[in-house]
Known about the structure:
By secondary structure, this protein is an alpha/beta fold. The protein has eight helices and seven strands.
Amino acid sequence: MRESYTKRDPKEYNKARGFFQWLTCRVVYGTYYRVACGLKITGRENVPKDKFFIVASNHVSAIDPFLIVDATGRHVAFMAKQELFERPVAKFFLDLLGAFAVNREKLSVSTIKTALGIKKTDWVLGLFPQGTREIDGNMDNVTRGFAGLAKTLKCDILPVGITGAIKKERKPFESHIKINIGKPIPYNEDTHEMINVWRQKIAELTAGELNEKN
């Protein structure tokens, strides 16, 4: 993976890219899943309106980023695994949505610089601490980098719990997707504490539904 793939300039997070994300995530995906899967969103009042933060959600399906943008009402620049950017079509689409590639093993200098640049815009940062999809709610594979990034950026973490979005459960007009947004986790110099609080919040926001269904 070339280093240039991971680096994004703050100027790239402009009105055109914001409009494309809004159209894709809120109009197209949001409308479809409200109609077809009874999408229900709670906790929108917990989303900061005029400050930068990291939105950190559990990860159960490929549509999670689209749902999060729709639920929060904010433009979200997602950190995506670098393997996705090795596919030309996926890279083109992800690029338009404002995502950028990261190495899941460790944060690179480019990743940190990109995150710092995004903080200067009206976008927020989005990521999945579990690193990969965990349909059974497993929290053992939570990467610690997201808390370290919050410490570096000196920003709060917004916990989001998603249930009902697992691919095998998404049956048109039968399934129900729920997105619960918790209160922001305050910035803390103790990254271990932030991680533990995030785990606890996600457990509360998903209310055990993931384990009950699998």
